[in-house]
Amino acid sequence: MVNKILAIIACVLLSMGQSVSAYAQSPSISAVFFVDRSATKATDRVVITLTGTYTCGPLPQPQPTQGSTFAGVNGSVSQAAGRDIAEGGFAFTPICDAVEHTFQTNVQADNIPWHGGPARVRASLFVQLCDEFSNCQQVNSAVDMQISIRG
């Protein structure tokens, strides 16, 4: 009888060890985000276009649009204009398949028009991958850099 109980306990412990090691071997995720140093201003001066590259993931494909596994890019651009500061924000959902992608996003001025010259970009790529037990991995890649607006 004691041998049966010990055998059952050993089976339970082995099965627990397998599930823990299976999670420990889950794939890791990454995030890398770059913005080009030059942005293009539209002729109306209301919109600038930022470009760059990113790599993230891998996340399951097709990529989830709801739930705790997700990825997103959020950022802002600021530019001094006399005593004012032109500002605008941007956001997009990246494709996180562990392959490098290029991006192009428009940034609309919220208050005053953009002009040629230096500006500051602050942006972040955030990626989260969760399993069915809500064990999550998170990575972030951020930029805070000066760019030049042309056009």
Would you kindly provide a written description of the structure presented here, covering whatever features stand out?
With 151 residues, the chain is of the alpha+beta class. The chain has a single domain (27-150), classed as Immunoglobulin-like. The chain has one helix and eight strands; from the N terminus they run αββββββββ. It has one helix spanning 2-24; strands at 30-35, 38-41, 47-57, 70-81, 84-92, 101-108, 117-130, 136-150. Strands 1, 2, 3, 4, 5, 6, 7 and 8 form an eight-stranded mixed β-sheet that branches. Strand 7 and strand 8 form a beta hairpin. The radius of gyration is 23 Å and the shape is elongated. The termini are far apart. Residues 1-25 have low confidence and may be disordered.
Number of domains: 1
Secondary structure: helix percent: 10-25%
Give the DSSP E fraction (strand runs of 2 or more residues).
over 45%
CATH topology: Immunoglobulin-like
Order of helices and strands: HEEEEEEEE
How many angstroms does the end-to-end distance come to? 85 Å
- Helix/strand/pairing category: alpha+beta
Largest sheet features: 8 strands, mixed
